[in-house]
Amino acid sequence: MASTVWVKVVGFSDVERHSLNTLFRLSARDGLQYSLWSPESPASAQVALIDVDSYEAGLELVSPGFNPHLKMICVGAKAPTLAWRTVQRPVDWTAMVHMLDELFVASPDVDIDISLDEPAATALPPGIRVALLAALPAEARLYLRARLALAGITALEEVDTLKQLDVKLKERSFDAVLVHVDAEQLDAWAMVKHLQDLPTPPRSVIAVAQQPNWKTLNLAERMGCMGVMEMPFNPQQVFSLLQRV
Q1: pLDDT > 70 fraction of the chain, expressed in percent and rounded
Q2: Which of 77, 81, 91 is nearest to 9 (CA)?
Q3: 3-state SS of the chain: helix, strand, coil percent to 5?
Q4: Dihedral sign of CA atoms 152, 13, 84, 87 in order
Q5: Where are the beta strands (DSSP E) in 16-148?
Q6: Can you spell out the DSSP letters for 52-78?
Q7: Residue pLDDT, tens place only, 107-160
Q8: Rounded CA gap, 244 and 167, in Å?
Q9: Which of 36, 65, 71, 213 lies in the 20 to 30 Å Cα band around 150?
């Protein structure tokens, strides 16, 4: 079954959108297909194509719902500095698809180092976002696996101990780390402290706590967490936090 990469398109004329949609259909291959994202799509957008010369782009870039971590390919003369790539008109749509492939298609020339001592981490295609769940209860992992996928974070690792956490962090970097904590047990914050003390901490650390109180919120803020996710889970809160990853 092909994996779908959802592409958010902002602005552009009807003719340009038709050209892009047609090329997406023609470029579908085994294992991957690009599709235009809409609010009704079953997952969050994984990349955005933005016509910076359009009125819609101006609204999008100042919207409270704008995700600054989303990779952006901008078309036009006045692209924002956080754009991943910028192209000018007339647009070469075939080249645009090749640009997307840079993010989401693994290179066949990757040199893989095989070691007999330690199993190597599974290589992920470029552009795939990955999260790490640390010390979470089994039922919470099942729920968050589904919610992370809807947020466009489709690869997931799980650990239960600080030692396992350290091994995973040496294998790869993570877009988000969700850690189960308990305000009444300081030992439960050891993983968060370990993440905070890394030379390059993960960009998004989210504490997950059972009915967090003011102490939990205060500790999370002091230890650099992006936020606290409450159990039992509130779908709107979960969605809001994951949109910031």
Answers
A1: 87
A2: 91
A3: 35, 20, 45
A4: positive
A5: 32-36, 47-51, 71-75, 85-87, 130-134
A6: TTSHHHHHHHH-TT--TTSEEEEESS-
A7: 444 343 433 344 445 566 666 789 999 999 888 998 898 888 877 788 899 999
A8: 26
A9: 213
